[in-house]
């Protein structure tokens, strides 16, 4: 493990290439270096894609993991800032003794496989048989064989095993003792043995693009070449949550638009005027994209989920300017009895000042977040750029689009509304009733 702390907190990311250079100079060595984020403190957290190779046979899993790692390095070269970390490893390099019971010999001697395993365990690490209490403390009662019985790996085959008839035989006569190599750790995922390749794409590669690359250049070729029986490939980690988060964000966007539309439909007593007001939402979305593009000319800022949250915020903010125009125009028409064109012109003249006042205060209030971020606040820089760009462009284009749309629609709607108000069956909205005689 290698770590470093930056004197300037805003330049911590610049230490990554400094640490990578001497590490990769060592033959056969590669490293996994990342700057911990606010939401991912563990090693490999944050923007990490986990490629899980799972199955029953550990040798087959390690072999497939090695082939997958070679394809990952070709698809996402380490020299370009991509990082790869196998967990637990790609080699079965740890010495291992395997005792494989011979069931025929066990049956001839009246010994079960469990009894053989317990005997070897007692001579090796000790066999816990019970828990006793002494002076108020709980102590494990463990059966151990003499330490001198196992002083070398070859001594496993000579361990004494007592049969049911009382005869003592060596463990090697009841099982095959094999000296081989094994993993330092066996990980399980959904009850299957698993080797995980933790892949961290370079900062300038979107997570979704990296996922598509892994599916097209790693997973599909491996599956076409043929996988051992019972072996499968899966993507998890941050990538496992990407589609779920994206679906949830789409639902949030649709729900935000629906709530805003229904609230305005109740206030204006019309299903048409809210549609005109909602025209400012795509204008704000275009401004948000423009703001993000301008920010990327100076510093890299991906379209992450926090940045996408800025578009949800814009839905509730940018409609305010259009609401001011529509409400004021309807007030002039319904209450003051003005002509449609004159009412729209007067409403635009009256509301242009408060529109720019509220927009400029919001824009200038968020500009420091975009251009002068402090330590840790760069997390919200993308969100700020989306909100600033959306507010600015929406304020300009709303004044150019909403009044013409009102002039097309409001005349027809208000003429129909006046006709309905004139009928005695329906009360007049926004108009005072005529006083009775003598009042």
Largest sheet: 5 strands, antiparallel
What percent of the residues sit in helical stretches (DSSP H or I)?
Answer: 40-55%
C-alpha end-to-end distance: 92 Å
Helix count from the secondary structure assignment:
11
Average pLDDT:
81
CA-based shape: elongated
The structure class reads alpha+beta
Strand content: 15-25%
Model regions low in confidence, pLDDT < 50 over at least 5 residues: 40-45, 424-439
* Rg value: 36 Å
The total strand number stands at 11
The SSE order reads: HEHEEHHEEEEEEEHEHHHHHH
Notes on the protein architecture:
This protein is of the alpha+beta class and about 450 residues long. About 50% of the residues lie in helices and about 15% in strands. It contains 11 helices and 11 strands. Strands 1, 2, 9, 10 and 11 form a 5-stranded antiparallel beta sheet that branches. A two-stranded antiparallel sheet has the order 3-8. The protein has a two-stranded antiparallel sheet with strand order 4-5. It is elongated, with a radius of gyration of 36 Å. The C terminus is likely disordered.
Summary, kept brief:
By secondary structure, the chain is α+β, with helices and mostly antiparallel strands.
Summarize this structure as a short list of keywords or feature phrases.
51% helix, 439 residues, elongated, five-stranded antiparallel beta sheet, alpha+beta
């Amino acid at each position: 493990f290698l770590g470093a702390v930056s004197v300037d907190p805003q330049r911590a990311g610049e230490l990554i290439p400094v640490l990578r250079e001497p590490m990769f100079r060592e033959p056969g060595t590669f490293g996994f270096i990342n700057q911990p984020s606010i939401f991912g403190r563990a090693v490999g957290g944050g923007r990490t894609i986990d490629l899980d190779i799972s199955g029953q046979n550990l040798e087959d899993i390690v072999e497939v993991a090695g082939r997958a790692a070679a394809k990952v390095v070709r698809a996402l070269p380490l020299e370009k800032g991509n990082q790869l970390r196998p967990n637990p490893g790609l080699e079965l390099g740890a010495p291992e003794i395997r005792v494989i019971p011979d069931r025929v010999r066990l049956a001839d001697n009246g010994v079960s496989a469990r009894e053989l395993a317990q005997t070897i365990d007692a001579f090796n690490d000790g066999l816990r048989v019970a828990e006793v209490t002494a002076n108020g403390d709980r102590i494990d009662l463990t059966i151990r064989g003499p330490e001198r019985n196992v002083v070398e790996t070859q001594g496993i085959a000579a361990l004494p095993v007592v049969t049911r008839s009382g005869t003592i035989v060596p463990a090697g006569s009841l099982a095959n003792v094999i000296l081989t190599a094994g993993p330092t750790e066996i990980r399980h995922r959904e009850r299957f043995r698993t080797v995980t390749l933790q892949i961290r794409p370079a900062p300038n590669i979107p997570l979704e693009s990296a996922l598509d690359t892994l599916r097209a250049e790693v997973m599909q070729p491996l599956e076409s070449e043929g996988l051992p029986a019972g072996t499968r490939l899966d993507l998890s980690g941050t990538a496992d949550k990407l589609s779920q988060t994206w679906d949830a964000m789409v639902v949030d966007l649709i729900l935000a638009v629906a709530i805003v539309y229904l609230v305005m439909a109740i206030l204006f007593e019309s299903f048409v005027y809210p549609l005109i007001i909602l025209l400012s939402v795509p204008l704000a979305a275009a401004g948000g994209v423009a703001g993000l593009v301008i920010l990327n000319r100076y510093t890299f800022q991906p379209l992450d989920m926090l940045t996408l949250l800025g578009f949800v915020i814009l839905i509730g903010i940018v409609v305010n300017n259009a609401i001011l125009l529509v409400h004021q125009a309807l007030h002039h028409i319904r209450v003051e009895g003005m002509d449609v064109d004159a009412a729209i012109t007067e409403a635009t003249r009256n509301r242009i000042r408060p529109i720019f006042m509220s927009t400029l205060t919001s824009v200038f209030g968020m500009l420091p977040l975009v251009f002068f971020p402090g330590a840790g606040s760069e997390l919200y820089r993308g969100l700020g750029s989306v909100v600033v760009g959306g507010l600015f462009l929406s304020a300009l284009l709303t004044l150019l689009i909403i009044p013409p749309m009102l002039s097309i629609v409001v005349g027809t709607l208000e003429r129909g509304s006046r006709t309905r108000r004139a009928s005695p069956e329906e009360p007049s909205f926004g108009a005072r009733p005529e006083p009775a005689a003598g009042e």
